[in-house]
Specification:
The chain is mostly helical. It contains 14 helices and four strands.
Length: 331
């Protein structure tokens, strides 16, 4: 096979990869699209597959399926007689794969999510898992530039999506979004619990940002809707509300002991860890579909929504949990 032919195949694979990645983002950002997540995953998987095929072709790794015979390889073929090439999962498992562990985990999460939502309800996944989709896009951009050079960057091809809703009027996404279907919530919890903590917290696995509104601007200056600066930079420390600050954020989590201490401070000194355990078990609060908490590695954390439930429970049963002994808790 000539060098020219090898190069033309690599170039074609890269072109297809970039087009698939762009279509994935454009579809997800399209307000008329209905199945955003489903379409995004299909297209971004194609993009990553072609990208890694091009890379393996460049370094001389045969990404076709075959059986090693005594004298020659026997290649697997489709019913139409074409070679069977590696799917993305097999590309990730190759020892020469150039991707780091969090990036691989991000992609494997999407594989599993696709299987969970096929032919099932998928309410809430477009809003609640966007940090993982964004991480996938940023990982793709970083990888294609690292492996093939900045001329293949897609960074200038897309812009911040214009909105019909004031960002300051959007309810807190983590509290106001529709709950995930139970099977999806269970999958997310189990997948996250299987990850090492450093991978789970990596922005390559899930990318999160916090927006702060820009209140003022000087006449005559360029008026970009969004400007990003590092949260630990001198500019971020000295400016008040004049810029948007890029910062990773995560939904507040609480350990059981913290919740018990909080209830003590709020006037329920007799509320104990025992009562907390009885309460969450009676309400099946650790069911992922309830949206009360999350398991990280082997530790369960509670969200603010659960604290609100505990607070209501204590208020109803103030006779039991208040400063003096009282009657038994109501049902």
């Amino acid at each position: 096979m000539s060098t020219r032919q090898v190069w033309s195949v690599r170039a074609e694979l890269l072109a297809k990869s970039r087009e698939a990645a762009l279509n994935a983002v454009q579809t997800f950002n399209n307000p008329l699209a209905t199945f955003k997540t489903e379409t995004f995953i299909v297209l971004i998987v194609i993009a990553w597959t072609y990208l890694l095929h091009s890379y393996y072709r460049r370094i001389g790794i045969d990404y076709r399926y075959f059986d090693e015979g005594p004298k020659r390889r026997k290649f697997h073929r489709t019913k139409a007689g074409e070679f069977k090439h590696w799917e993305l999962e097999r590309c990730l498992n190759e020892k020469s794969c150039p991707l780091d562990a969090p990036t691989k985990s991000n992609l494997r999460f999407l594989f599993g999510l696709r299987h969970e939502i096929e032919h099932h309800r998928s309410a809430g996944i477009d809003e609640q898992l966007t940090g993982r989709y964004l991480a996938c896009c940023l990982n793709y951009e970083r990888t294609i530039c690292k492996l093939f050079g900045p001329r293949y960057s897609l960074g200038s091809e897309t812009a911040f999506a214009l909105q019909f809703r004031d960002l300051t009027a959007i309810p807190e996404a983590t509290e106001a979004s529709r709950p995930l279907p139970a099977n999806v919530a269970r999958y997310v919890q189990q997948f996250d619990a299987s990850l090492p903590l450093d991978e789970f917290q990596s922005p390559s696995f899930s990318y999160r940002i916090l927006f702060t509104r820009k209140l003022t601007n000087k006449p005559g200056q360029a008026d970009r809707a969004i400007e990003f600066i590092a949260p630990d930079s001198n500019e971020a420390q000295t400016l008040d509300n004049e810029r948007w600050v890029l910062k990773e954020v995560e939904r507040p989590k609480h350990l059981p002991g913290d919740i018990v201490k909080l209830m003590h401070k709020e006037g329920y000194p007799r509320f104990s860890m025992h009562y907390h355990t009885v309460l969450w078990k009676s309400l099946k609060a650790k069911d992922p579909g309830r949206g009360y908490g999350y398991q990280v590695v082997r530790t369960w954390y509670w969200y603010n929504r659960w604290i609100d439930e505990v607070r209501k429970h204590c208020a109803v049963n103030i006779g039991l949990y208040g400063p003096s002994a009282g009657s038994k808790a109501s049902a």
